[in-house]
Amino acid sequence: MQEVLERILVDFLKISGTTAAGIIDSDGLIIASHSPKMGAEELEVAGGLIAQLVSSAREVSTASGLGEVRDIISETENGKFFVLGASDVLFWFFTEPGINLGYIRVHAKKALEKIESTLAGGD
Question: Among residues 2, 7, 68, 83, which is most buried (max CB within 10 A)?
Fold first, then answer.
């Protein structure tokens, strides 16, 4: 299963403008990750911080009555990062600043479906 998840990430990162991707559990522990620009330690730190971010977003969402958090998208000076839910895990990825939001969301949803299928034992 690990190899299949890593292959999904490697294939996803072939999309022009993507720079890193990972799959983490709710505690921020890396299940799979890949980046041609980041090292293993940087990816682990990113995973932990993303889990914290999602936890905070869930608290805000609950307290404000907005419902369940589905996705998080953040635009920064040097790029964008996305977090999408996948069963008991999170799929996250970083992009360069100019990437088309609609284009990347379509591909991210396809990758998420593959991740969910793999985790459910379908691959």
Answer: 83
